Amino acid sequence: AADLARVLPRLPRARAGARAGPWTAGRARRGGRARADHREAPGRQRAAARGARAGAGAVEPARARPGRGAVRRLLARRGFRSLLIGQGVSAFGDWMVTVALMVLVLDLTGSSTAVGGMLVLRLMPAMVAGPLATRLVHRWRRRRTMLAADLARAVVVLLIPLVGAAWWVYLWAFVLEVLGLVFLPARDASVPDLAGEEDLPLANGLVLASSYGTIPLGAAAFGGLAALQRRVFEGGFLGSRPYLLVFAVDAATFLVSYAFVRRLRELDEPPVRAATPGWTAPTGGRFRDALRLPLVRRIVAPVTAVALGVGTLFSVGIVFVREVLGASDTELGALIVLFGLGALAGLGLHRLLGAGLATVRLTLSAQGATIAVMALAPALAFAYLGAAAFGLFTSATLVGGMSLLQSRLSGEPLASAFAVFHVLIRAGLSLAALGAGVAVDLAAAVRLPLLGRLGPARLVLLSAGALVVASASAVRLPAPEGAR
To answer: Taking the domain 77-472, which CATH number applies?
Structure first.
């Protein structure tokens, strides 16, 4: 309720400010109080406005909500356009292989626990390789880091289907995630220099849209390529290597990303933006140094909680919708599509509510509540609505955390902060997937007051949703004069 009180009253003023321009939008958001201060001390008000424009203040003026002109201006930047296209193609391949890995392990083992184990092994590098990723993004140029990671991932993904053994799939899925941990911080730290300060929130939204928007395309492409391989290559080498065609296409997407990143020669130079005073501290490229950044410490709780919710739903969700709600493979695919569409809508929700820790805490609470409601869904139709809402609030929370980092940090601290950001997400996903899978196997059905009898899958989802909502209360908001 407190977060709603902070966020919702700003919406009409933000819309009015958007029509007047980015700097007057900040004054419109502050409403009558700012106008009264201006009448009482016009000189002091104008001086404060000049200081805000120079970046001297701790509180940033609110940016206007971007329109078509802002999108065209941003896409006119050659560097950002190249990054966006390359990442969109690469994300398309990533979603194909995510589905392929789960199905491949299930085919090899016939065990849903093994599927959860694959997710854990793919995500575990966050805990093992996090310090390594922080060191690399600190010492290497961003462009060189991304190029090396793309080439290595193209090779690794081709190795996965060559041996029909679960341990082989586990091994290379682990390596693939280590390389992703090296690539992502360098990419995210590059966005401010390629997009510019004015369009940074929109740039974040477009980068995430290129990832979430390809979920339905990747899932559909997996089904099409798998069917094509079964029909055309019934025997021989290709026929004996399940989903080899899917992995080959994913390797090609990494090469496309490599080609576009190679154009970004401006990333060979160190960043020139100044960070917001009060949020930075010297770092030496070490993981623990990045955790000392005040802003990074503030986002630890929401980022970890988001990962907890996603990991639990991904691990238990397949069992829940197929065995509890009786969904077919087609209906499961529809749920994935709705999640992706909800995630796209979440990017717009973030821009509507505005950037700030209060918004992050609000959307995080909504994500946890959605998981809890989905656990009680009596029919598949309610699960469809829950999947869309889950994607909505998850993406809004993640893009809110990214925008906070990019708007207040720069250079070495920003790269280190994003290394921590992605490590927290993957570590949280790993622990949640493992814990949820074990809990479902060990738990028994219980009968709760008002709710009645709950099976293990419903019980685990309900508990995870409650834990995410409780975690939202751990997000500490700064003082009013701080960088909210």
So the answer is: 1.20.1250.20
